[in-house]
UniProtKB/TrEMBL annotation:
Gene3D superfamilies: Penicillin V Acylase, Chain A. It comes from Pseudolactococcus paracarnosus. The lineage of its organism: Bacteria, Bacillati, Bacillota, Bacilli, Lactobacillales. Belongs to the peptidase C59 family. This is Choloylglycine hydrolase family protein. It comes from the Bacteria.
Amino acid sequence: MCTSLTYQTQDGDLFLARTMDYGEVLDGRPVFLPRQFEVDTIFCGQQASKYAILGAGSTEQGQVLIADGFNEHGLAVAELYFANEIVLEEKPLPNKINLAPHELITYLLGNFKTLAEIDQAIAGIALVVPNNGLPALPLHFILSDKTGQAAVIEARGGELCLIDNPVGVMTNTPNLDWHIRNLNNYLHIQPQAFSNKQFGNVTASPFSQGTGSQGLPGSYTPPDRFVRAAFGRQYLPTPTTLNEAVTTIFHILDMVAVPKGVNLTAEGVSDYTQYTGIMSMTERAYYMTTYENRTVYRMAMTDEMITNQKSVKWFDLPFEPHIVELD
């Protein structure tokens, strides 16, 4: 599951945002990785990051795994499930940076400033099935930087490449090309109510507001969430301030958020939106809400943090509901 999108204010402030939808409880929380943070990759040994990273992550076998984040230069990446279509290398390839899918985000954020730099280097990276007992997570990735461009990395077989994403939205399987073509099925969707129509001597009128969105797909499947996110991204009023932008993005992602109990796996496990994260590349800040706690929390990557913080910093974000009682 998961839905992600890029966004821009009238003044050019840039964002990459996502819902984290999953069945297994991930305990994802904000984390800062300093410069020279060493990642112990499966095939390439220890890799030291050049750049500081702020995002949401968890730990697995003692390793910090980043699910979405940005670096000190405003490059942002998020991973989403790409089940049934991902094509990984079975063995490491010679003369390549060989990475397991879950290692790619930290590598990209730790070593590149822009999409242009990644575009030049991506053919030299291979995504490989892990051989250390960890699962081969079927992931694809949405990226953006301070140009506002959106791109996707999908391992479809053959060399990796950076795929332009002109819609600025991504969900899950099928691949991005399919989702973009599928928008052709929704040319009738619009925010304005439809006007009256004549049937013989009878004038048919809308019952109420909202007729323009009649036919907007409502399921939690990746294609339906893609269309709803693209619709919201296109038509919600463009904000002028950072705070307005954060509020607007949360409202767009509320259109695709999955509550517990309405989307069950074959084993009866609830796949739901565990957190929603917004990466502000312009101000180098991360905004987050959790399923239980709808309070918006902000974590900033400051110059002081980049220069002086030498160890991993986990932010103590409360998961319990925060309800404010007014007198």
